[in-house]
Amino acid sequence: MQRTVPQVGRGWVRWLAACALVAGMWPGMVVARAAGAVQAPDPGCVGLVLGGGGARGIAHVGVLKVLERERIPVCAVSGTSMGAIVGGLYAAGYDAAELEHLVEHIDWADMFVDDPPRSELPMDRKDEDFRHLLKLEIGYRDGRVSIPAGLVRGQKLMLLLRRLTLSTWRDPDFDALPIPFRAVAADIVSGQKVVFADGDLAVAIRASMSVPGAFAPMRVGERLLVDGGIADNVPVDELRAIGRMPMVVVDVGSPLLPEAQLGNPGAVLNQMVGVLMLEKTERTLASLGPGDTLLRPDLGDLSSVQFQRAADAVDMGERAAEAMLPQLRRYAVPAERYAALRARQHRRDFDPGLLAFLDVEPGQSPSATRHVAWATESLVGKPFDLDAVERQVGRAYGDGRFETIDYRLVERDGRAGLEIVPQQKPWDAFGRLGLQVDDNFNGLNNYLFSAELVFNDVNRLGAKWRNLVQLGRVTGLRTEFHQPFGRAGAFYLEPSGEIRAESLPLWVDGREQVAEYRLVGKSVGLEAGYSPLPQWRLSVQALAGRDAVRRLVGDETLVRTVAESYAGIRLAATWDTLDSIDFPTKGVRATGEWLSMHPWGGTDTQGDVARVAIDWALSRGRYHLLLGTRLATTPGDEAFFQAQNFLGGFLNLSGFNEKALVGNQLGLLRAAAYRRLGDTQQIFAVPTYLGASVEAGNVWNQADDFGRGGLIVGGSVFLGFGTPLGPLFLGYGRNDAGASSFYLTFGSLLRRDGE
Predict the structure, then answer these.
(1) Could you report the per-residue pLDDT of 610-653, keeping only the tens digit for each?
(2) Cα–Cα distances in Å, from 248 out to 271, 292, 338, 594?
(3) Which contiguous run of DSSP H or E holds residue 318?
């Protein structure tokens, strides 16, 4: 059951509560004690109350280590937030050593990223990386604009909790767990405390630690639940409701800030909320009796988000418990009795056997439901394989339409099966923004503002309509309609249209600008593709368009205007397993295309173009290496505009300005090495890299000249920052053609041809 205890508040108290929500917390108010006790605990044991505190709550594991070492029997647990995680897993049968190994080896940074690894994303989502847009989606539905309810939706965290609690799948009553357990959450709509005494253990834990603003609220039935710390951060009363027993209470709440750190409105607001929470906690702790023991570990400067300091937190909790050994040892029992108790409390073995069926809970979009079913149907008729389940669920989630996708083991007619529960994002359309600024500190600078509007599930087959607007160094509009077909959408059709204008400087020897042209291009295309796996794609596209180039300023002897129309076929293949295009650490991205132009329908362009680009990333610890090559050729030496290739710019023959070299033939080899600086385990830090590159290449206008002489060698040194707006590089480049430049630029280490 989930017991709901109403809270009250009027006038300024409600205003304070609203402020608390902004800060991600709520002062716990006095609540009525729930009536009625449940199963009586074993005599001669203690109840354990574990408070909330984010990463500070990892200290609970150290306390458990001492309790086990001193043979102090625990026969009931209540917890809030991180206390619910540690307490819930302990109640499920994990011992302190297992929990210590778990908290110290979890990739906490990865827990705060919802998407599966980039290599597992479908190709159309990998293409999004090259649009250089923010990840934040601004949704629209039924006349309302909204943003995600939390920075993290909690997909990976939920899968981790599901994995860790699978041994309890047949125990909906939390009193039937190896140790009776209670978790506390809060209804963000009504402000009521919600106590989980039965149901789904993984859901209860996840709801209890849904920190407002950080993790999205958890919907359970008709309730929208958030972190229980805003209602009851140290749930002593919930343990008393289980039965009368001495209690060991662990409070890991954050201390109040000193005056010197209250220099901004956010800090003052957090302090106000902290004062109110502290007042409620102190009232709760004042109710402890002489038979109870309170532990308040000295956690020093450990903050609630420093999960990378898990080992430190465990040690601090252990020291706090050892300092209270005289009080704790009064609960100790003989070794034989303790061993017998712990044997009963050990995590239960389970083996669901063959998965006989799979049910997908229907959502608002039939195509999204089918997508999940197709992604997971291969699990049926096989022995339960946890890794395979998580892999297939993650692949379905990578589609991009879902808030979360959860799964549950269920039993029907004596057979085990899976119930998949997808929850779609609460909007039909969403927009994203992007901003890029480039400066060479020598008078050349530009910006690019981008805005994208995407409509999901345009029809029952799950079509996606994407529209991109750009202003700045490139001004244009692109629209494309992606229509998947076949099982799991392996086939697709994609009609598209684009109008694009940009300024192109004309340089002599890549160093002296002699003119500037304005290019206006218009094109339409129809692409058909096949991508049965996330790693690769084959496509063929029919395209047609017109390019017009007009000289804006410069040498009057140069051509003033050029215009040409074209029609042709593009064949393309892509293999992409890179983990990132910003600062890749592993994987390969290889693309190849053949563009064949013919004078169809009155167009005036004829010729063929072949292009290949390969990038390979590898790492060792903090050190990363990116090797790459770009090759392009026009076998017949035709000089139409679609055959032109550009070099120049940061990491693209450094030293030159952007697109300083242009020709029908292109060759480039490069190697970039970069080292991650600072603490690599920090979750919310800005990743910083120190790197250098070596590049060699050039462009030519005749196929026979390709690679013959004129090879330019350049290099760069740079600092790279993983900012919320995207990668930012500050660097200096120079080449043996005598060109050099400083760079301040937004953009990834990879770029597509033509960029």
Answers:
(1) 999 999 999 999 999 999 999 999 998 888 888 999 999 999 99
(2) 28, 6, 17, 71
(3) helix 310-323
